[in-house]
Specification:
The complex is a heterodimer of chains A (604) and B (451). By secondary structure, chain A is α+β, with helices and mostly antiparallel strands. Helices cover 36% and strands 19% of the residues of chain A. In chain A, helix 6 packs antiparallel against helix 8. In chain B, 48% of the residues lie in helices and 17% in strands.
């Protein structure tokens, strides 16, 4: 508990990052790379960048985000490339625009690699201590107070606490406080957030059991290998040189389903013990069997947890049934009759902050200087967390230097889509990226993340400037559509990449043009800033719903306002009138002119 | 002060004397106004009999009902005052409400508030607007059906196969590692064909819908000076077109809506069809008349029955008859000037624009022909140009999706999905709402996703 007799930590920081998961690592690295004195506080320096669930990075939508992260100067793509043991490009036959990279990674190597990068980063102090309280000065943030009462002073704070906030793990009907399996939860921060006036909700996620490979009969499964030539995630990785391992495909059967039904009474999910809402797209095996009773089998994957371990991840079998039921469940699968469960699956409930309390730079509106990223914002997935971490780290660094925020639009990046969805719509289940969420899917491709975003990465100082000249050469060759240069002048880009990119742009030409035209039409609204002081409660012509929501969300731009659920096109027209009215102050005329235009707008 | 902060008042029942008349108020002032007029607080949702006073004078004994917003038809507080159906009493009540702080509602303002407050979708709001403007029994029932959600339902029905196919595509694009069978191109093509057929049916109804709302177009044709313009004026009961005894003075095509024998029609007066007219303007008028003939469902050929037909009359008659037949338009021959000596009527309707003789029969003939043009009342019809344009564009997107399917059998899905998304957005636009989350909901309700 934070003590009255506190001690002030001797170093002062521009940015303090709490939590060293995928979001925290990106935030801390971005901030320190931008030259800010950065503190990375974590409960355990041994678990930096832990892959607490599946051993994979990327996938559809997520893979695009990892490429975007890389183009902006993030670390995740390189970390995945360093530890990749199985790599594949998904959706090869469904059109270039939805092709997505995915890799399975050695968890230990991933973690070790990220720890090394963190330790090598100049200006970044990794420190093991437990944050307990947000230290504020009236409303603005001053730093963080540890459990033992140490005060860490920082101009800005980035909270990336994952599932640790009031974490409660469930196995069967027994539950215990935990952040992840075997790790203690973070108990102080949640109360601190509530005390600052933030609304805190409850979500749930889960993970499957792990098995001992020596007890598995692999002859009963279908072997799956990655692509013959593994494709790197990072624009800067030349090739994947790590040893490749196979995965295995298995299926549940009628006996598995019966075992689950027999044990539902002991399921924390179905006995009403778990209150948090889980994701629809990452359901537990209990959910799958109950909600889709007619499906005869569900697919499972056995994935190695790494090169130097015998533990296998049973992808598809996320469960919180009691331990005995889990053992029985696993043994119904041919090939797993004698499998040893090295770790049991569990469900975990945790606190999150409804992200509608954030600006599009992931800063709390109520607490200037406090940024939130990752699962604390109601998302799920390493990639979603890392992307927010990068954005929050960049913005904390910018704010610490009193610079304007950095934001991404929906038409620029999946990361922009995600943040926009989070801060304007909020979440009612853990948020995961899908390509279905992006309006401009055919333009937001994994193959052109660098074309879209790398200039920004250079401008922010997150990518070493040496590569810039080569990148610009590459970009120019692609855009020009003709000409060539020797590969040595382009590396890590190449003429092959130039030709590929030209072909894609040609093939999707009309679609890309249409998406760009749509984005251009919206741009005016995206660039129209709404006055921060706009009092929505006085805009009577707005719908009641719009008035309330806008007053709460305070969107920064007209475009954002238009995407708030419940805000109608007519409301947007009215806001547009008001945003213009601010520009032309004419006290005597304003009221009447405004009302007339509202009416005329309405009647259209 | 902005509009929704005001309380509006209007007579809710048709004007005129009847057993009962209802005055309706909407807005935040309902409670206060009811207190001023009735001298008491009203319990929500309970009809209460009270004396209504304007100043010190008792106007009537009314049944008053108060509903608290936002769960009311307008989304605001609502007050209904049912009084005796005398125009004087009702006028007094409206005046009393205005003195108590309400404002007279503009036409359609209750509806606009309902839409603004999210109580109606755009299609429904538009239908209410049409209801207010619609004249004629047939148009009224079509508008009523749309208000009941008929048009929204029809659009939903068209949207369903697109939403389903898009969800099937999206689930395969976003979850390739799932155990879901690939989508067969032939299956996708069949869905696209079905969806297209649905939109085509709605679009086919559009032309009919338009004729119902604007009424069938009834063109008056004939030789110059046969009295078309006088006949038009007689039918409308007031002067409208330029009427002169000099041949060739009607140079423009004039249109006027009228209710003839219960059917709404648009009467179109044209220049006389003469080939030897002098001057460019006349020729232009003739061209316009020919154009009008192309757009009419009913052609009324006006002939001067007091005069023996000459060669021009014969040729005009033949031309009109042939054009009407080609278009499938009904042809009515009106033998005008029946009041003049020597007037003859062989087949057709004998009438006189001057005396009004035979006009009833002519009206009945036109109504019968126009009624035939706008048939199948029960069908719900699209009759808004913007909605129809959105549907036509949606149809084009579906065609493009089919083209991608045919052109790239190995890599069509991302492009086809883009076409379907746009088609869906256009249908939502026609419906007046958006539903991006609908696709995800569809996916998660149908497929078991995730590991």
């Amino acid at each position: 508990m934070a003590d009255a007799a506190f001690s002030l930590y001797p170093r002062r920081y521009d940015v303090i990052v709490v939590g060293a998961g995928h979001a925290g690592v990106e935030a801390a690295l971005a901030s320190s790379r931008m030259g800010r004195k950065t503190l990375l506080l974590t409960q355990s320096l041994d678990t930096i960048a832990t892959m607490s669930c599946n051993p994979s990075i990327g996938g559809v939508g997520k893979g695009q985000m990892v490429r975007e992260l890389d183009a902006l100067g993030g670390e995740m793509a390189k970390a995945a490339d360093r530890s990749s043991y199985f790599s594949q490009t998904l959706n090869l036959s469904k059109g270039q625009a939805v092709r997505s990279p995915r890799a399975q990674c050695d968890k230990a190597a991933y973690r070790a690699g990220q720890k090394k990068v963190v330790e090598a980063a100049p200006g970044l102090d990794p420190v093991q201590d437990e944050a307990w309280d947000i230290w504020t000065d009236g409303s603005a943030v001053r730093g963080v107070i540890s459990k033992r009462g140490t005060r860490y002073e920082g101009k800005t704070v980035v909270l990336t606490t994952g599932t640790f906030l009031n974490g409660l793990a469930h196995v069967g009907l027994s539950s215990h406080a935990a952040g992840r399996s075997g790790e203690p939860p973070a108990l102080g921060v949640s109360a601190s957030l509530k005390a600052l006036g933030l609304a805190v909700g409850r979500l749930k996620t889960g993970t499957p059991p792990r098995l001992h490979a020596a007890t598995v009969d692999f002859s009963k499964f279908e072997r799956q290998d990655g692509d013959p030539v593994p494709k790197p995630f990072s624009h800067f990785t030349e090739r994947i040189a790590t040893p490749q391992l196979p995965s295995w495909v298995a299926y549940t059967n009628a006996r598995t389903h019966q075992t689950i039904r027999d044990n539902l009474a002991n399921s924390p999910l179905y006995s009403g013990k778990i209150e948090g809402v889980g994701p629809r797209y990452c359901p537990s095996i209990e959910d799958k069997v109950v909600k889709f009773p007619h499906k005869e089998r569900h697919q499972l994957f056995l994935e190695p947890e790494g090169w130097n371990t015998s533990e296998m991840y049973l992808n598809g079998m996320s469960t919180s049934l009691p331990e005995a039921a889990q053992r029985e469940l696993v043994s119904t699968i041919p090939g797993l009759e004698n499998a040893l469960l090295t770790r049991y699956g569990y469900a975990i409930e945790y606190d999150f902050c409804q992200p509608t309390q954030l600006t599009d730079s992931l800063e709390c509106r109520a607490v200037p200087g406090l940024f939130l990223a990752g699962q604390i914002n109601g998302t799920t997935g390493y990639e979603e967390a890392a992307s927010q971490g990068l954005l929050a780290g960049i913005n904390a660094a910018l704010r610490a230097a009193s610079q304007a925020p950095f934001t991404l639009r929906r038409d620029e990046a999946y990361i922009g889509v995600m943040v926009d969805d989070l801060v304007l719509r909020g979440v009612d289940e853990p948020y995961r990226m899908f390509t279905a969420r992006a309006e401009n899917r055919l333009s937001l491709r994994a193959d052109d993340a660098d074309m879209r975003l790398m200039e920004k990465g250079f401008a922010l100082g997150l990518i070493a400037p040496e590569a810039r000249e080569r990148f610009l050469r590459y970009k120019e060759l692609v855009v020009a559509g003709t000409g060539d240069k020797p590969d040595e002048e382009l590396a890590p880009w190449s003429m092959d990449k130039v030709r590929d990119q030209r072909a894609v742009r040609e093939s999707y030409g009309p679609y890309i043009a249409r998406e760009r035209a749509g984005a251009e039409r919206l741009k005016a609204a995206e660039l129209t800033e709404l006055p921060a002081a706009l009092d929505y409660t006085t805009l009577g012509a707005l719908t009641n719903e719009a008035r309330q929501k806008l007053a709460r969300l305070k969107p920064r731009t007209l475009g954002q306002a238009g995407r708030v659920p419940g805000v109608t096109p007519a409301d947007v027209q009215i806001l547009w009138v008001h945003s213009r009215r601010q520009v032309i102050p004419n006290a005597s005329n304003v009221g009447n002119a405004g009302d007339n235009s509202e009416l005329s707008v309405r009647e259209q | 002060m902005s509009s929704t902060e005001e309380t509006i008042v209007a007579l809710a029942t048709p004007p005129g004397r009847s057993a009962l008349g209802v005055v309706r108020l909407s807005g935040p002032g309902c409670r206060e106004i009811s207190r001023l007029l009735l001298g008491t607080e009203l319990e929500p949702r309970r009809a209460t009999a009270r004396r209504l006073r304007r100043g010190e004078v008792i106007v009537d004994r009314v049944v008053a009902t108060y509903w608290a917003g936002p769960v009311t038809p307008t989304g605001e507080d609502l007050l209904e005052l049912a009084a005796h159906g005398s125009p004087e009493i009702l006028r007094e009540i409206v005046s009393a409400a205005i003195e108590a702080g309400a404002r007279a509602a503009a036409p359609g303002e209750f509806t606009r508030r309902a839409y603004v407050n999210g109580r109606l979708d755009l299609a429904q709001a538009r239908a209410v607007g049409d209801l207010i403007a619609a004249r004629g029994a047939a148009a009224r029932s079509a508008a009523l059906r749309r208000l009941e959600g008929g048009l929204s339902d029809a659009l939903d029905e068209v949207r369903a196969p697109i939403l389903e196919l898009l969800a099937a595509l999206e689930v395969r694009l976003d979850h390739p590692e799932e155990d879901i069978a690939p989508l067969a191109p032939s299956e996708a093509d069949a869905s696209l064909r079905d969806a297209s057929a649905g939109i085509e049916r709605l679009l086919a109804g559009y032309a009919r819908g338009r004729s119902r709302r604007e009424g069938a177009r009834v063109g008056l044709f004939g030789s110059p000076n046969a009295g078309k313009s006088s006949l038009l004026n007689a039918l409308l009961g007031r002067p409208r077109a330029i009427v002169s005894s000099m041949p060739g003075t009607t140079r423009d095509v004039l249109e006027e809506q009228a209710e003839l024998g219960g059917a709404v029609v648009t009467l179109v007066d044209t220049a006389g069809l003469r080939e030897d007219a002098e001057g460019g303007a006349e020729r232009e008028g003739v061209a316009r008349a020919e154009g009008a003939l192309e757009s009419c469902e009913v052609a009324v050929l006006v002939v001067d029955s007091a005069r023996a037909p000459d060669e021009l009359d014969d040729r005009t008659r033949d031309y009109i008859a042939a054009a009407a037949k080609r278009r499938g338009a009904a042809l009515i021959v009106a033998h005008n000037k029946s009041d003049l000596p020597g007037a003859r009527a062989e087949h057709g309707v004998s009438c006189s624009a001057l005396t009004g003789h035979g006009l009833d029969a002519l009206e009945a003939a036109i109504a019968a022909a126009a009624g035939g043009a706008a048939a199948d009342e029960g069908e719900c019809l699209l009759d808004d140009a913007r909605q129809s344009a959105a549907l036509a564009r949606a149809l084009a997107e579906l065609a493009a999706a089919r083209a991608e399917l045919a052109a790239r059998p190995g890599a069509w899905e991302d492009r086809a999905a883009d076409r379907l998304r746009r088609a869906l957005a256009l249908l939502n636009e026609a419906r007046g709402d958006g539903a991006a989350e609908a696709v995800l909901d569809e996916i998660f309700s149908k497929f078991c996703i995730g590991k």
